[in-house]
């Protein structure tokens, strides 16, 4: 008696532009289940009148463009603040069939959400203005100016008040690009650098270092085949020497390796468990607070010289390229497809 085959399920991955389609699709095709048909598309390739999508597909060992009916589930990999396209798709395929509806977060809005339950792990963070900058500079000495919708450390400035009265302003590196003689001069320079972009001020954290390199701790939190948040991995990025931006990194490794180098195994394991617990709470808080259907996010931590953990930021579209350098990280790509399978049946 022949075994009954599973129904073929069609999932779509939405990306920002055609150049990304093949690169993204290749990563997920290698990890998909046999009963899943996968294609990649951009918002401009949706034909709303015909309710079809011109997407890239891999068939018979070839990359081909094919016109598909709307998929059963959509996984959004467009890094955007707009929800218009997702809302239109949901109107057709169902309100619970698209995930990562919006994945470019306002950092200050996320801070306010997290502060309701995770305040002890958050550095002081407020919207940027001249008066507040001067006040916080006295309290913390080191501040970070971050664009509310920034990513990969772009547009981030480090502002350090020195004992001499000088204020050093740097981008990416600890060495200053600009040295202000006093507070008014610093404020004038910051106004020039930040322009009309919405910025926030974040309290500086004195980071622990390994081999004179700053490192962070990133927990990747994804929903699994049961639709439940779980921590896929915890990794660390090492910045170049003299650099504070870990997005410009020289090395990536599992954080377990770093923590067990710095601490006895038992203490390192406690840190890792705390990181996992906080990350899960952060994911649940962000999803419930925003009302978005999310499938993954990453939580970035800093470990200071007093052995205190701080949540530096939450990213709505984790960089998957990080994990390609590490062995045995297939779950990074499998989990979104497993979650899509879950949404198909619920």
Automatic annotation (TrEMBL):
The keyword Nucleotide-binding applies. It comes from the Bacteria. Keywords: ATP-binding, Nucleotide-binding. GO terms for molecular function: ATP binding; metal ion binding. Pfam families: ATPgrasp_YheCD. Residues 111-345 form the ATP-grasp domain. The keyword Nuclease does not apply. This is ATP-grasp domain-containing protein. It comes from Paenibacillus tyrfis.
């Amino acid at each position: 008696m022949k075994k009954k085959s599973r129904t073929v399920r069609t999932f779509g991955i939405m990306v920002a532009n055609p150049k990304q389609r093949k690169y993204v699709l290749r990563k997920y095709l290698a990890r998909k289940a046999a009963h899943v048909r996968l294609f990649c598309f951009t918002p401009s390739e949706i034909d709303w009148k015909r309710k079809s999508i011109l997407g890239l597909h891999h068939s018979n060992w070839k990359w081909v463009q094919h016109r598909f009916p709307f998929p059963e589930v959509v996984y959004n990999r467009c890094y955007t603040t707009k929800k218009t396209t997702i809302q239109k798709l949901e109107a057709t395929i169902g309100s619970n069939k698209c995930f990562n509806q919006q994945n470019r977060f306002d950092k200050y809005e996320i801070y306010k959400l997290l502060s309701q339950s995770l305040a002890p792990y958050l550095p002081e963070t407020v919207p940027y203005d001249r008066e507040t900058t001067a006040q916080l500079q006295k309290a913390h000495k080191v501040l970070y100016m971050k664009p509310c919708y920034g990513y990969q450390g772009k547009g981030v400035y480090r502002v350090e008040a020195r004992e001499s009265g000088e204020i050093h302003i740097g981008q990416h590196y600890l060495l200053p690009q600009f040295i202000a003689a006093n507070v008014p001069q610093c404020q004038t320079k910051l106004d020039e650098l930040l322009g009309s972009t919405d910025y926030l001020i974040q309290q500086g954290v004195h980071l622990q270092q390994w081999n004179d390199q700053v490192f962070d701790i990133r927990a990747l939190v994804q929903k699994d085949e049961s639709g439940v948040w779980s921590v896929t991995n915890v990794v660390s990025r090492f910045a170049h020497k003299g650099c504070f931006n870990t997005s410009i990194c020289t090395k990536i490794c599992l954080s377990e390796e770093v923590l067990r180098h710095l601490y006895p195994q038992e203490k390192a394991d406690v840190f890792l468990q705390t990181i996992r617990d906080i990350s899960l709470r952060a994911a649940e808080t962000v999803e419930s607070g925003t009302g978005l259907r999310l499938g993954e996010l990453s939580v970035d931590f800093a470990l200071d010289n007093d052995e205190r953990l701080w949540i530096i930021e939450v990213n709505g579209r984790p960089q998957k390229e990080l994990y390609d350098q590490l062995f045995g990280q297939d779950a990074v790509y499998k989990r979104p497809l497993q979650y899509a399978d879950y949404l198909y049946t619920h």
